[in-house]
Amino acid sequence: AQSVTQLDSHVSVSEGTPVLLRCNYSSSYSPSLFWYVQHPNKGLQLLLKYTSAATLVKGINGFEAEFKKSETSFHLTKPSAHMSDAAEYFCVVRSSNTGKLIFGQGTTLQVKP
Amino acid sequence: KAGVTQTPRYLIKTRGQQVTLSCSPISGHRSVSWYQQTPGQGLQFLFEYFSETQRNKGNFPGRFSGRQFSNSRSEMNVSTLELGDSALYLCASSEVLASTEAFFGQGTRLTVV
């Protein structure tokens, strides 16, 4: 069965410093992986996706993620945090059997001024 | 293009009642998925519809049901509401089944009292 584990439930950074949100996946097949962001009282917005093309994936708002098969990781990074980045972030894998999206538990990113 | 529209945005129901939630996907999208989001369980897949047929189903009791119409709009019904059904219900639309990209609505916040 496929799954994702987000290693931190809460990450706090200062504005202008780098962001690292960690995600490990479990999959027997080449996975389709995603990062979604959810701002308070909003739906989910796709940040970026990996679907077996380039291992370094660039997304919106300056975010990127690197697929590392040897480490089964798909960590999300951003060089410089902005106050507007404060939100909940979800690492997601798509089930190869059913096609459904399987979500991690989420990481709350706090950005301090 | 208009985004995914979910109605109503907020709903308060009493235990034992039933509720119907609506989702209008992006124009041209034929797949609609439903997810339940709670603080304890996170985001969990309910079901996915494509071309008016349920294609995938999550591990929820039979009280949770859905349907999709010929214009791809979908409804989700929960009967005999329980307090634990209080959640944010999110709908996602995709062009095709098991697409690599899903677009989410803002959700319907259901409170059962």
Structural shape of chain B: globular
Determine the structural class of chain B based on helices, strands and strand pairing. mainly beta
Computed over alpha carbons, the radius of gyration of chain A is 13 Å
Structural class of chain A: mainly beta
Give the SSE string of chain B. Answer: EEEEEEEEEEE
- How many helices of chain B? The count is 0
Number of strands of chain A: 12
Task: Report the sheet with the most strands of chain B, covering strand number, pairing sense and barrel closure.
Answer: 7 strands, mixed
Percentage of residues in DSSP E strands of chain B: over 45%
Q: Over the alpha carbons, how many angstroms does the gyration radius of chain B reach?
A: 13 Å
- Residues in helices of chain B, as a percent range: under 10%
Q: How much helix is in the residues of chain A?
A: under 10%
| Gap from first CA to last CA of chain A | 41 Å
Termini gap of chain B: 37 Å
Topology:
The complex is a heterodimer of chains A (113) and B (113).
Chain A: E1 3-6, E2 10-14, E3 19-21, E4 23-26, E5 32-38, E6 44-50, E7 56-58, E8 64-68, E9 73-78, E10 87-94, E11 101-103, E12 107-112
Parallel strand pairs in A: 2-12
Antiparallel strand pairs in A: 1-4, 3-9, 5-6, 5-10, 7-8, 8-9, 10-11, 10-12
Chain B: E1 5-7, E2 10-13, E3 19-24, E4 31-38, E5 42-50, E6 53-57, E7 64-68, E8 74-78, E9 87-94, E10 103-104, E11 108-112
Parallel strand pairs in B: 2-11
Antiparallel strand pairs in B: 1-3, 3-8, 4-5, 4-9, 5-6, 7-8, 9-10, 9-11
What do these coordinates show?
The complex is a heterodimer of chains A (113) and B (113). In chain A, 0% of the residues lie in helices and 54% in strands. Chain A is an all-beta fold. In chain A, a hairpin with a 5-residue loop joins strand 5 (32-38) and strand 6 (44-50). The termini of chain A are far apart. Chain B has strands spanning 5-7, 10-13, 19-24, 31-38, 42-50, 53-57, 64-68, 74-78, 87-94, 103-104, 108-112. In chain B, strands 2, 4, 5, 6, 9, 10 and 11 form a seven-stranded mixed β-sheet that branches. The A-B interface holds A 32, 36, 41-46, 49, 51, 90, 94, 98-106 and B 4, 33, 35, 42-45, 48, 55-56, 58, 90, 92, 97-98, 100-107.
